[in-house]
Amino acid sequence: xxxxxxxxxxxxxxxxxxxxxxxxxxxxxxxxxxxxxxxxxxxxxxxxxxxxxxxxxxxxxxxxxxxxxxxxxxxxxxxxxxxxxxxxxxxxxxxxxxxxxxxxxxxxxxxxxxxxxxxxxxxxxxxxxxxxxxxxxxxxxxxxxxxxxxxxxxxxxxxxxxxxxxxxxxxxxxxxxxxxxxxxxxxxxxxxxxxxxxxxxxxxxxxxxxxxxxxxxxxxxxxxxxxxxxxxxxxxxxxxxxxxxxxxxxxxxxxxxxxxxxxxxxxxxxxxxxxxxxxxxxxxxxxxxxxxxxxxxxxxxxxxxxxxxxxxxxxxxxxxxxxxxxxxxxxxxxxxxxxxx
Length: 341
Prior knowledge:
By secondary structure, the protein is an alpha/beta fold. It folds into 2 domains: 199 residues, Alpha-Beta Complex (Quinone Oxidoreductase, Chain A, domain 1); 135 residues, NAD(P)-binding Rossmann-like Domain (Rossmann fold, 3-Layer(aba) Sandwich), CATH 3.40.50. 26% of the residues lie in helices and 25% in strands. It contains 11 helices and 16 strands. Strands 3, 5, 6, 7, 8, 15 and 16 form a 7-stranded mixed sheet that branches. A 6-stranded parallel sheet has the order 11-10-9-12-13-14, with helices on both faces. The longest helix has 12 residues.
């Protein structure tokens, strides 16, 4: 079968012919890939960001946002059957440790076993996963367009559910960065909260996307802190959800949070440098957010089925993966790119 594999860090992945995976364990699920979302994390993996923390033997098949049709299952699989159309949670959690028992998949004590990061991913014709990681897709939803929900949507839903208890009527939340995650985050916040949603992005096209997906206000990055204070009678936002997490965005996000507000960090790559006094006196909380849980994915798919969360996607044939990567890196992709084998 075909697979897009990373052979060396800091080098472009290659389209290879490899052996097809096979069902070997009782909980294995083999999928014919329908769609595989392209994520900025794939670029970070290529550039070696994860290498010190997540050792992996190269070559590695990339792709952690996957949907597909079940082709074969192990002897103990009962949750799905051959022919089912499913979306995949990327973390292969054990299901029995304390974290898994309460649904915290990403904190599984067995460690990180993440599709497309340290195990073969879905930029391929076939994907081998487990029954703990698959969720049936309701009829009427296109699995290709749904694929980015397996990480981008999942992360956005996770932070929206964390923020929701803080965002009752009369509150304001800022979404910083209206890219592949941000446009989903806006919709999740609109679905789960009563807050006024303010979107901040330097790109006019991204701000247009924010308006299309439900933001009440859109602002350019330059001057955003002052503009947010103007919108909130000088107080600042109750919460800022930062989908950028690098460069000047970190300091900008913190400057938009009101006293006793919360800064939710989703994007990564930068540094958080702040005086402890600037957190202690106004009692500002800083909350990190990893990929969401299986339950986050279940609720997100339900929102998608009801039409309340709609992805903006652009499709590429698997063989055009290099074009897709270039579009993502050069800022030509508003929404999410999906590779279609």
